[in-house]
Amino acid sequence: MAASLDRIQVGSAPDSWGVRFPDDPGQVPWERFLDEVAEAGCSWIEPGPYGCLPTDPARLSDEVDRRNPRVSAGTVFTGLHRGPSVRESTWEQVSQVAALTRATGARHLVVIPSFRRDDKTAEILEPRELTGEQWAHLTKGVKLTETYGERVGCLHLKQVDPAVLADVIRDEVPFGPAVQRGVMCEAPSGVPELEPVLVAAQRLGVELFAIVEQDMYPCEPDRPPPIAVRTRTFLRSCGA
Question: What's the pTM?
Answer without folding.
Answer: 0.85
